Amino acid sequence: MVKTGDSEVPHRQIRAIYDDQTITVYQAYSASIAVQAVREQKLNASPDFLLGRMTWIKPSWCWMMYRSGYSTKDDRQSHILAIKMTHQNFKKLLSQAMVVTGTSLTASERAKPVRVQWDPERTPSLGVLPYRSIQIGISQALSQTWVEQWIESIEDVTENALGLMNAVKEDPRVPLEVLKAKGFVPEEKVYEVPKELQQTLMIT
Question: Which class for 47: exposed (0-12), middle (13-18), buried (19 or more C-beta within 10 A)?
Fold first, then answer.
């Protein structure tokens, strides 16, 4: 556990937007991929989307902001997409994961189609927090299944990212509740997974 103010947060914990049916994850793409993906509700609608590349998705909005520089880091990350998956398929994805810890992987570990990294969580202004956020890497072996069968909807949320960037630039001390009220930061909740998945993901 990591103490933050009056509460304690586990060192590794999944936090996300979700409802009874779906969970939202994020990824950043170029305009050529994102615009067609949203229009056709199919991530690989554009020929620029390459199934052979590992795709890293994140349930954490603020970590996505850090990774993409609020969508301004480079042209390949100029559009932030919110991608919904059913809980069943999200957990199916996690069940095939291998946590990357920096040590050498065995042959059986390398064969797993999903990689998980636990990286420091971020604040809306991209400051480092003392607990971790999950990143999920989907390899070529599973990418087509994820793209064609496991995605329920795709939404472009780039304007929210840019709104957040401008808000924290104008007032670095802007309260979190104000950012949430303006729709720049979503209300993420702890996402619980079964004990077997906790062991797979090294959640402590």
Answer: exposed
The residue type at 202 = M
Provide φ and ψ at 26, rounded to 5°: -125, 150
**pLDDT digit string, tens, across residues 67-108:** 999 999 999 999 999 999 999 999 999 999 999 987 777 787
Per the confidence metrics, is the pTM higher than 0.70? yes
Rounded to 5 degrees, φ, ψ at 112 are -65, 140
**DSSP codes joined into one string, 1-44:** -EEETTEEE-SB--EE-B-SSEEEEEEEE-HHHHHHHHHHT-TT
Q: Is the torsion defined by CA of 40, 159, 70, 22 positive or negative? A: negative
Report d(CA 111, CA 54) in Å as an integer. 14
Q: Which residues pair with 134 in a beta bridge?
A: 118
Residue among 59, 61, 71 at smallest CA distance from 24 = 59
Please give the structure tokens belonging to residue 139: 């390899």
User: Which tokens sit at 78?
Assistant: 């100029």
